[in-house]
TrEMBL record:
Residues covered by the UDP-glucose/GDP-mannose dehydrogenase C-terminal domain: 311-412
Cross-referenced PANTHER family: UDP-GLUCOSE 6-DEHYDROGENASE TUAD
GO biological process, one term: polysaccharide biosynthetic process
Enzyme class (EC, first level): oxidoreductase
Keyword Oxidoreductase: yes
Known pathway: Nucleotide-sugar biosynthesis; UDP-alpha-D-glucuronate biosynthesis; UDP-alpha-D-glucuronate from UDP-alpha-D-glucose: step 1/1
Organism of origin: Solirubrobacter ginsenosidimutans
Pfam families attached to this UniProt entry: UDPG_MGDP_dh, UDPG_MGDP_dh_C, UDPG_MGDP_dh_N
Family note: Belongs to the UDP-glucose/GDP-mannose dehydrogenase family.
Protein name: UDP-glucose 6-dehydrogenase
Keywords: NAD, Oxidoreductase
EC number per UniProt: 1.1.1.22
Length: 429
Protein backbone atom coordinates (compact mmCIF):
# COMPACT_ATOMS: atom_id res chain seq x y z
CA UNK A 1 0.00 0.00 0.00
CA UNK A 2 2.93 2.30 0.60
CA UNK A 3 4.65 2.08 -2.76
CA UNK A 4 4.59 4.97 -5.22
CA UNK A 5 1.99 6.96 -3.36
CA UNK A 6 1.85 10.48 -4.66
CA UNK A 7 2.79 13.29 -2.26
CA UNK A 8 -0.01 15.75 -1.58
CA UNK A 9 -0.46 19.17 -0.03
CA UNK A 10 -3.13 20.08 2.49
CA UNK A 11 -3.85 23.75 3.08
CA UNK A 12 -5.47 24.39 6.44
CA UNK A 13 -4.69 22.25 9.50
CA UNK A 14 -8.08 22.48 11.14
CA UNK A 15 -10.36 19.60 11.73
CA UNK A 16 -10.83 18.41 8.14
CA UNK A 17 -7.28 19.24 7.04
CA UNK A 18 -5.55 17.37 9.83
CA UNK A 19 -7.72 14.28 9.57
CA UNK A 20 -7.27 14.23 5.79
CA UNK A 21 -3.52 14.63 6.17
CA UNK A 22 -3.23 11.92 8.82
CA UNK A 23 -5.52 9.63 6.82
CA UNK A 24 -3.46 9.93 3.65
CA UNK A 25 -0.26 9.49 5.66
CA UNK A 26 -1.77 6.22 6.89
CA UNK A 27 -2.29 5.23 3.24
CA UNK A 28 1.39 5.90 2.58
CA UNK A 29 1.35 9.41 1.13
CA UNK A 30 3.78 12.11 2.10
CA UNK A 31 1.65 15.08 3.12
CA UNK A 32 2.74 18.72 3.16
CA UNK A 33 0.49 20.52 5.63
CA UNK A 34 0.34 24.29 5.31
CA UNK A 35 -1.28 26.78 7.66
CA UNK A 36 -0.92 30.53 8.11
CA UNK A 37 -1.15 30.10 11.90
CA UNK A 38 2.50 29.86 12.99
CA UNK A 39 1.69 28.81 16.55
CA UNK A 40 -0.44 25.95 15.28
CA UNK A 41 2.28 24.75 12.91
CA UNK A 42 4.92 24.98 15.65
CA UNK A 43 2.65 22.99 17.96
CA UNK A 44 2.03 20.35 15.32
CA UNK A 45 5.76 19.98 14.70
CA UNK A 46 6.02 19.09 18.39
CA UNK A 47 3.11 16.68 18.19
CA UNK A 48 0.59 19.04 19.83
CA UNK A 49 -2.92 18.61 18.37
CA UNK A 50 -5.03 21.78 18.02
CA UNK A 51 -8.22 19.70 18.32
CA UNK A 52 -9.37 16.72 20.35
CA UNK A 53 -10.29 13.78 18.15
CA UNK A 54 -10.00 10.13 19.19
CA UNK A 55 -7.03 8.43 17.48
CA UNK A 56 -5.75 11.54 15.71
CA UNK A 57 -2.65 12.29 17.76
CA UNK A 58 -1.62 8.62 17.65
CA UNK A 59 -1.97 8.59 13.86
CA UNK A 60 0.00 11.83 13.47
CA UNK A 61 2.66 10.47 15.81
CA UNK A 62 2.90 7.18 13.90
CA UNK A 63 3.40 8.97 10.59
CA UNK A 64 5.60 11.83 11.71
CA UNK A 65 8.10 11.09 8.96
CA UNK A 66 5.43 11.48 6.25
CA UNK A 67 3.76 14.57 7.69
CA UNK A 68 5.51 17.85 6.97
CA UNK A 69 4.21 21.00 8.65
CA UNK A 70 4.99 24.45 7.32
CA UNK A 71 3.63 27.98 6.96
CA UNK A 72 5.20 28.28 3.52
CA UNK A 73 2.97 27.30 0.60
CA UNK A 74 6.07 26.84 -1.56
CA UNK A 75 6.87 23.64 0.41
CA UNK A 76 3.65 22.07 -0.78
CA UNK A 77 3.90 23.40 -4.33
CA UNK A 78 7.39 22.03 -4.69
CA UNK A 79 6.52 18.47 -3.65
CA UNK A 80 2.88 17.99 -4.56
CA UNK A 81 0.67 18.59 -7.59
CA UNK A 82 -2.61 18.09 -5.69
CA UNK A 83 -3.32 20.74 -3.06
CA UNK A 84 -6.28 19.91 -0.84
CA UNK A 85 -8.02 23.00 0.50
CA UNK A 86 -9.40 22.55 4.00
CA UNK A 87 -9.85 26.07 5.32
CA UNK A 88 -12.84 27.31 7.27
CA UNK A 89 -16.02 28.57 5.59
CA UNK A 90 -17.94 29.92 8.59
CA UNK A 91 -21.37 31.50 8.19
CA UNK A 92 -21.59 35.25 7.75
CA UNK A 93 -24.22 37.29 9.56
CA UNK A 94 -26.65 36.75 6.68
CA UNK A 95 -26.12 32.97 6.68
CA UNK A 96 -24.09 32.84 3.45
CA UNK A 97 -20.77 31.01 3.71
CA UNK A 98 -17.78 33.29 4.29
CA UNK A 99 -15.38 32.30 1.52
CA UNK A 100 -12.62 34.78 2.30
CA UNK A 101 -10.18 32.07 3.46
CA UNK A 102 -10.89 30.01 0.31
CA UNK A 103 -10.34 33.04 -1.92
CA UNK A 104 -7.12 33.92 -0.10
CA UNK A 105 -5.81 30.43 -0.93
CA UNK A 106 -6.86 30.80 -4.58
CA UNK A 107 -5.18 34.20 -4.81
CA UNK A 108 -1.96 32.84 -3.35
CA UNK A 109 -1.56 30.22 -6.09
CA UNK A 110 1.10 30.90 -8.71
CA UNK A 111 0.63 30.19 -12.41
CA UNK A 112 1.10 26.47 -13.02
CA UNK A 113 -0.32 23.92 -15.41
CA UNK A 114 0.78 20.94 -13.36
CA UNK A 115 -1.03 21.72 -10.08
CA UNK A 116 -4.65 21.32 -9.01
CA UNK A 117 -6.73 22.61 -6.12
CA UNK A 118 -8.87 19.91 -4.54
CA UNK A 119 -11.68 21.50 -2.54
CA UNK A 120 -12.45 19.79 0.78
CA UNK A 121 -13.97 22.83 2.47
CA UNK A 122 -17.75 22.97 2.28
CA UNK A 123 -18.60 25.67 -0.25
CA UNK A 124 -21.77 26.87 -1.99
CA UNK A 125 -22.64 25.36 -5.34
CA UNK A 126 -20.96 27.45 -8.02
CA UNK A 127 -17.78 28.16 -6.03
CA UNK A 128 -15.73 25.81 -8.20
CA UNK A 129 -16.95 27.59 -11.31
CA UNK A 130 -16.01 30.99 -9.87
CA UNK A 131 -12.54 29.74 -8.95
CA UNK A 132 -12.03 28.17 -12.37
CA UNK A 133 -13.02 31.45 -13.98
CA UNK A 134 -10.50 33.32 -11.81
CA UNK A 135 -7.76 30.85 -12.75
CA UNK A 136 -8.64 31.26 -16.44
CA UNK A 137 -8.71 35.08 -16.27
CA UNK A 138 -5.32 35.15 -14.58
CA UNK A 139 -4.01 32.50 -16.99
CA UNK A 140 -2.88 30.44 -14.02
CA UNK A 141 -3.46 27.04 -15.62
CA UNK A 142 -4.49 25.44 -12.32
CA UNK A 143 -6.97 22.54 -12.44
CA UNK A 144 -9.86 22.27 -10.00
CA UNK A 145 -11.52 19.26 -8.32
CA UNK A 146 -14.38 19.21 -5.84
CA UNK A 147 -13.94 16.42 -3.28
CA UNK A 148 -16.34 17.06 -0.40
CA UNK A 149 -15.72 15.66 3.05
CA UNK A 150 -18.25 13.59 4.97
CA UNK A 151 -16.44 12.81 8.19
CA UNK A 152 -18.09 13.13 11.57
CA UNK A 153 -16.33 14.54 14.60
CA UNK A 154 -15.60 11.83 17.13
CA UNK A 155 -15.27 9.11 14.48
CA UNK A 156 -13.36 11.07 11.86
CA UNK A 157 -10.43 8.68 11.40
CA UNK A 158 -12.74 5.72 10.85
CA UNK A 159 -14.90 7.81 8.52
CA UNK A 160 -11.82 8.71 6.49
CA UNK A 161 -10.56 5.14 6.25
CA UNK A 162 -13.98 3.54 5.72
CA UNK A 163 -16.08 6.09 3.86
CA UNK A 164 -19.60 5.29 2.65
CA UNK A 165 -18.61 6.92 -0.62
CA UNK A 166 -16.00 9.14 -2.24
CA UNK A 167 -17.33 12.00 -4.36
CA UNK A 168 -15.06 13.52 -7.00
CA UNK A 169 -16.35 16.40 -9.12
CA UNK A 170 -14.11 17.46 -11.99
CA UNK A 171 -13.86 18.00 -15.72
CA UNK A 172 -12.61 14.52 -16.52
CA UNK A 173 -8.99 15.63 -16.52
CA UNK A 174 -5.69 14.39 -15.00
CA UNK A 175 -6.47 16.04 -11.67
CA UNK A 176 -9.74 14.14 -11.22
CA UNK A 177 -7.99 10.90 -12.23
CA UNK A 178 -5.26 11.57 -9.68
CA UNK A 179 -7.75 12.17 -6.85
CA UNK A 180 -9.62 8.97 -7.75
CA UNK A 181 -6.29 7.15 -7.67
CA UNK A 182 -5.47 8.57 -4.23
CA UNK A 183 -8.66 7.15 -2.74
CA UNK A 184 -8.45 3.82 -4.59
CA UNK A 185 -6.97 1.84 -1.63
CA UNK A 186 -10.09 2.61 0.43
CA UNK A 187 -12.19 0.62 -2.02
CA UNK A 188 -15.22 2.85 -1.43
CA UNK A 189 -18.10 3.44 -3.84
CA UNK A 190 -17.05 6.28 -6.13
CA UNK A 191 -19.31 9.03 -7.44
CA UNK A 192 -17.40 10.79 -10.18
CA UNK A 193 -19.41 13.66 -11.46
CA UNK A 194 -19.36 17.31 -12.46
CA UNK A 195 -18.15 19.96 -10.03
CA UNK A 196 -21.53 21.56 -9.25
CA UNK A 197 -23.18 18.23 -8.53
CA UNK A 198 -20.34 17.24 -6.19
CA UNK A 199 -20.74 20.55 -4.33
CA UNK A 200 -24.47 19.92 -4.04
CA UNK A 201 -24.05 16.34 -2.76
CA UNK A 202 -22.32 17.72 0.30
CA UNK A 203 -24.86 20.41 1.15
CA UNK A 204 -27.84 18.21 0.36
CA UNK A 205 -26.50 15.32 2.48
CA UNK A 206 -26.04 17.50 5.56
CA UNK A 207 -29.39 19.23 5.02
CA UNK A 208 -31.12 15.86 4.67
CA UNK A 209 -29.59 14.49 7.88
CA UNK A 210 -30.57 17.67 9.73
CA UNK A 211 -34.08 17.32 8.34
CA UNK A 212 -34.23 13.76 9.63
CA UNK A 213 -33.31 14.98 13.13
CA UNK A 214 -35.82 17.84 13.14
CA UNK A 215 -38.46 15.42 11.85
CA UNK A 216 -37.93 12.91 14.66
CA UNK A 217 -37.80 15.76 17.17
CA UNK A 218 -41.24 16.90 16.03
CA UNK A 219 -42.50 13.31 16.22
CA UNK A 220 -41.11 13.27 19.78
CA UNK A 221 -43.03 16.40 20.63
CA UNK A 222 -46.25 14.83 19.34
CA UNK A 223 -45.42 11.66 21.31
CA UNK A 224 -45.38 13.79 24.45
CA UNK A 225 -48.89 14.97 23.68
CA UNK A 226 -50.22 11.53 22.77
CA UNK A 227 -48.45 9.22 25.20
CA UNK A 228 -46.33 7.34 22.62
CA UNK A 229 -42.60 6.69 23.15
CA UNK A 230 -40.41 8.13 20.37
CA UNK A 231 -37.66 5.58 21.05
CA UNK A 232 -40.10 2.81 20.20
CA UNK A 233 -41.45 4.78 17.26
CA UNK A 234 -37.94 5.35 15.85
CA UNK A 235 -37.15 1.64 16.30
CA UNK A 236 -40.24 0.71 14.34
CA UNK A 237 -39.58 3.29 11.63
CA UNK A 238 -35.86 2.57 11.34
CA UNK A 239 -36.36 -1.08 10.40
CA UNK A 240 -37.86 0.10 7.14
CA UNK A 241 -34.84 -0.03 4.81
CA UNK A 242 -36.05 3.05 3.00
CA UNK A 243 -35.89 5.04 6.24
CA UNK A 244 -32.99 3.40 8.11
CA UNK A 245 -32.29 3.60 11.85
CA UNK A 246 -29.61 6.31 11.82
CA UNK A 247 -30.20 9.96 12.72
CA UNK A 248 -33.55 9.14 14.30
CA UNK A 249 -32.47 9.91 17.87
CA UNK A 250 -34.73 12.58 19.25
CA UNK A 251 -33.06 15.05 21.58
CA UNK A 252 -32.49 18.68 22.38
CA UNK A 253 -31.46 19.62 18.86
CA UNK A 254 -28.49 19.34 16.55
CA UNK A 255 -25.41 21.50 16.88
CA UNK A 256 -21.84 21.45 15.65
CA UNK A 257 -19.89 23.32 13.05
CA UNK A 258 -21.69 21.78 10.09
CA UNK A 259 -25.42 21.12 10.27
CA UNK A 260 -26.58 24.56 11.45
CA UNK A 261 -24.16 26.28 9.05
CA UNK A 262 -24.81 24.09 6.03
CA UNK A 263 -28.60 24.06 6.36
CA UNK A 264 -28.57 27.85 6.51
CA UNK A 265 -26.06 28.08 3.66
CA UNK A 266 -28.21 25.85 1.42
CA UNK A 267 -31.31 27.85 2.27
CA UNK A 268 -29.43 31.05 1.43
CA UNK A 269 -27.98 29.59 -1.74
CA UNK A 270 -31.46 28.62 -2.89
CA UNK A 271 -32.80 32.04 -1.94
CA UNK A 272 -29.99 33.82 -3.78
CA UNK A 273 -30.87 31.79 -6.87
CA UNK A 274 -34.52 32.80 -6.57
CA UNK A 275 -35.86 29.61 -4.97
CA UNK A 276 -37.55 29.68 -1.58
CA UNK A 277 -36.53 26.44 0.22
CA UNK A 278 -39.53 26.14 2.53
CA UNK A 279 -38.60 22.88 4.23
CA UNK A 280 -35.22 24.10 5.46
CA UNK A 281 -36.79 27.11 7.20
CA UNK A 282 -38.75 24.68 9.32
CA UNK A 283 -35.75 22.43 9.97
CA UNK A 284 -33.91 25.39 11.46
CA UNK A 285 -36.89 26.70 13.42
CA UNK A 286 -37.74 23.30 14.89
CA UNK A 287 -34.13 22.94 15.99
CA UNK A 288 -34.12 26.30 17.77
CA UNK A 289 -37.39 25.55 19.56
CA UNK A 290 -36.16 22.09 20.53
CA UNK A 291 -33.26 23.54 22.54
CA UNK A 292 -35.70 25.66 24.54
CA UNK A 293 -38.14 22.88 25.41
CA UNK A 294 -35.89 21.76 28.26
CA UNK A 295 -36.72 24.98 30.10
CA UNK A 296 -40.44 24.21 29.91
CA UNK A 297 -39.81 20.69 31.20
CA UNK A 298 -37.90 22.06 34.19
CA UNK A 299 -40.58 24.65 34.91
CA UNK A 300 -43.29 22.00 34.71
CA UNK A 301 -41.78 20.32 37.78
CA UNK A 302 -39.93 23.10 39.57
CA UNK A 303 -42.11 26.10 38.87
CA UNK A 304 -40.07 29.30 38.60
CA UNK A 305 -36.38 28.60 38.18
CA UNK A 306 -35.15 31.53 40.27
CA UNK A 307 -32.40 30.30 42.61
CA UNK A 308 -32.83 26.70 41.53
CA UNK A 309 -29.64 24.63 41.19
CA UNK A 310 -29.46 23.00 37.78
CA UNK A 311 -26.71 20.54 36.86
CA UNK A 312 -25.78 20.09 33.20
CA UNK A 313 -24.11 16.81 32.28
CA UNK A 314 -22.20 17.33 29.05
CA UNK A 315 -21.57 20.55 27.14
CA UNK A 316 -20.03 19.52 23.80
CA UNK A 317 -22.39 19.41 20.82
CA UNK A 318 -22.04 15.62 20.86
CA UNK A 319 -19.87 13.01 22.63
CA UNK A 320 -16.21 12.33 21.81
CA UNK A 321 -15.38 15.88 20.88
CA UNK A 322 -14.44 19.09 22.65
CA UNK A 323 -16.26 21.08 19.98
CA UNK A 324 -18.69 23.61 21.43
CA UNK A 325 -19.76 25.26 18.19
CA UNK A 326 -23.56 25.71 18.09
CA UNK A 327 -23.86 23.28 21.01
CA UNK A 328 -27.34 23.16 22.53
CA UNK A 329 -25.70 23.73 25.94
CA UNK A 330 -24.90 27.32 24.93
CA UNK A 331 -28.57 28.27 24.50
CA UNK A 332 -29.59 26.19 27.48
CA UNK A 333 -27.09 27.62 29.95
CA UNK A 334 -27.83 31.21 29.00
CA UNK A 335 -31.62 30.66 29.13
CA UNK A 336 -31.35 29.01 32.52
CA UNK A 337 -29.32 31.88 33.89
CA UNK A 338 -31.72 34.39 32.38
CA UNK A 339 -34.49 32.58 34.28
CA UNK A 340 -32.52 33.06 37.52
CA UNK A 341 -31.20 29.52 37.93
CA UNK A 342 -27.70 28.64 39.13
CA UNK A 343 -25.95 26.37 36.67
CA UNK A 344 -23.21 23.90 37.43
CA UNK A 345 -21.84 21.96 34.46
CA UNK A 346 -19.51 19.09 33.80
CA UNK A 347 -18.07 17.84 30.53
CA UNK A 348 -15.31 15.19 30.36
CA UNK A 349 -13.40 17.00 27.61
CA UNK A 350 -15.02 20.25 26.45
CA UNK A 351 -14.59 22.40 29.57
CA UNK A 352 -11.66 24.32 28.07
CA UNK A 353 -13.64 25.24 24.96
CA UNK A 354 -16.78 25.87 27.00
CA UNK A 355 -15.03 28.39 29.25
CA UNK A 356 -14.35 30.53 26.17
CA UNK A 357 -18.06 30.72 25.35
CA UNK A 358 -20.10 30.36 28.53
CA UNK A 359 -20.22 32.92 31.32
CA UNK A 360 -21.64 32.61 34.82
CA UNK A 361 -21.63 28.81 34.93
CA UNK A 362 -19.73 26.91 37.61
CA UNK A 363 -17.62 24.20 36.03
CA UNK A 364 -17.60 21.01 38.06
CA UNK A 365 -14.74 18.51 38.27
CA UNK A 366 -16.89 15.44 37.86
CA UNK A 367 -20.47 14.39 37.30
CA UNK A 368 -20.78 13.73 41.04
CA UNK A 369 -19.55 17.24 41.79
CA UNK A 370 -22.02 18.75 39.30
CA UNK A 371 -25.12 17.00 40.65
CA UNK A 372 -24.31 17.57 44.32
CA UNK A 373 -27.21 19.53 45.83
CA UNK A 374 -28.96 20.05 42.47
CA UNK A 375 -32.71 20.52 42.18
CA UNK A 376 -32.61 19.02 38.71
CA UNK A 377 -30.08 17.34 36.44
CA UNK A 378 -30.15 17.79 32.66
CA UNK A 379 -28.31 15.26 30.51
CA UNK A 380 -27.14 17.41 27.59
CA UNK A 381 -24.48 15.28 25.85
CA UNK A 382 -24.60 11.50 25.86
CA UNK A 383 -20.98 10.80 26.84
CA UNK A 384 -20.53 7.06 27.54
CA UNK A 385 -19.46 7.75 31.14
CA UNK A 386 -22.87 9.29 31.88
CA UNK A 387 -24.58 6.07 30.79
CA UNK A 388 -22.63 4.31 33.53
CA UNK A 389 -23.65 6.69 36.34
CA UNK A 390 -24.93 5.13 39.55
CA UNK A 391 -28.44 6.59 39.48
CA UNK A 392 -29.19 5.77 43.12
CA UNK A 393 -26.04 7.62 44.21
CA UNK A 394 -27.00 10.52 41.94
CA UNK A 395 -30.48 10.66 43.51
CA UNK A 396 -28.90 10.60 46.97
CA UNK A 397 -26.58 13.51 46.19
CA UNK A 398 -29.29 15.77 44.75
CA UNK A 399 -31.49 18.19 46.66
CA UNK A 400 -34.39 17.61 44.27
CA UNK A 401 -35.36 14.57 42.24
CA UNK A 402 -35.77 15.62 38.60
CA UNK A 403 -33.71 14.13 35.76
CA UNK A 404 -34.26 15.64 32.31
CA UNK A 405 -32.75 13.23 29.83
CA UNK A 406 -32.07 15.45 26.81
CA UNK A 407 -30.69 12.58 24.71
CA UNK A 408 -32.93 9.70 25.81
CA UNK A 409 -29.85 7.97 27.19
CA UNK A 410 -31.47 6.30 30.18
CA UNK A 411 -34.07 3.63 30.70
CA UNK A 412 -36.98 5.56 32.27
CA UNK A 413 -37.86 2.58 34.51
CA UNK A 414 -34.30 2.43 35.90
CA UNK A 415 -34.34 6.16 36.62
CA UNK A 416 -37.69 5.90 38.40
CA UNK A 417 -36.47 2.85 40.34
CA UNK A 418 -33.63 5.03 41.64
CA UNK A 419 -36.22 7.36 43.12
CA UNK A 420 -35.99 10.08 40.47
CA UNK A 421 -38.62 11.78 38.34
CA UNK A 422 -37.85 11.08 34.66
CA UNK A 423 -38.43 13.53 31.82
CA UNK A 424 -37.09 12.40 28.46
CA UNK A 425 -37.68 13.75 24.97
CA UNK A 426 -40.87 12.32 23.51
CA UNK A 427 -41.19 9.46 25.95
CA UNK A 428 -44.88 9.32 26.68
CA UNK A 429 -47.18 11.83 28.30
C1 LIG B 1 -21.91 16.10 10.26
C2 LIG B 1 -22.22 14.97 9.27
O1 LIG B 1 -22.79 13.86 9.97
C3 LIG B 1 -20.97 14.54 8.52
O2 LIG B 1 -21.29 13.58 7.55
C4 LIG B 1 -20.35 15.78 7.83
O3 LIG B 1 -19.14 15.46 7.18
C5 LIG B 1 -20.06 16.83 8.88
O4 LIG B 1 -21.28 17.17 9.56
C6 LIG B 1 -19.48 18.02 8.16
O5 LIG B 1 -20.16 18.58 7.30
O6 LIG B 1 -18.31 18.32 8.37
P1 LIG B 1 -20.84 16.22 12.72
O7 LIG B 1 -21.25 17.65 12.70
O8 LIG B 1 -19.45 15.86 13.14
O9 LIG B 1 -21.02 15.57 11.25
O10 LIG B 1 -21.81 15.46 13.72
P2 LIG B 1 -23.04 14.46 13.66
O11 LIG B 1 -22.64 13.17 14.26
O12 LIG B 1 -23.63 14.40 12.32
O13 LIG B 1 -24.05 15.17 14.68
C7 LIG B 1 -24.56 16.48 14.45
C8 LIG B 1 -25.57 16.86 15.51
O14 LIG B 1 -26.78 16.14 15.34
C9 LIG B 1 -25.13 16.60 16.96
O15 LIG B 1 -25.48 17.71 17.76
C10 LIG B 1 -25.94 15.38 17.36
O16 LIG B 1 -26.20 15.34 18.76
C11 LIG B 1 -27.20 15.59 16.57
N1 LIG B 1 -27.94 14.33 16.29
C12 LIG B 1 -27.40 13.38 15.50
C13 LIG B 1 -29.21 14.16 16.84
O17 LIG B 1 -29.74 15.02 17.57
N2 LIG B 1 -29.89 13.00 16.55
C14 LIG B 1 -29.37 12.03 15.76
O18 LIG B 1 -30.05 11.01 15.55
C15 LIG B 1 -28.09 12.23 15.22
Amino acid sequence: MTTNREPIGVIGTGYVGLVTAAGFAELGNDVYCIDIDEAKIEGLKQGKMPIWEPGLSELVERHRSRLHFSTDLADALEHARLLFVAVGTPPTYSGDADLSAVHAVVESMPASDHHALVMKSTVPVGTGETIQRAFAEQAKGFRYVSCPEFLKEGSAIKDFLEPDRVVVGDEGDWAGDAVVELYAPLDAPLVRTDIKSAEMVKLASNAFLATKISFINEIANVCEETGADVVEVARGMGLDNRIGPKFLQAGIGFGGSCFPKDVTALKQLAGNSGYHFQLLNSVIEVNELQKRRVIAKLEKHLGRLVDKQIALLGLAFKPNTDDMREASSLVLSSRLQAAGAHVRAYDPVAEGEARKLIRGVRFAESAADAVDGADAVVLVTEWPEFAELDLAALAGAMRGDLLVDGRNLYDPAAVRAAGLVYEGIGRGG
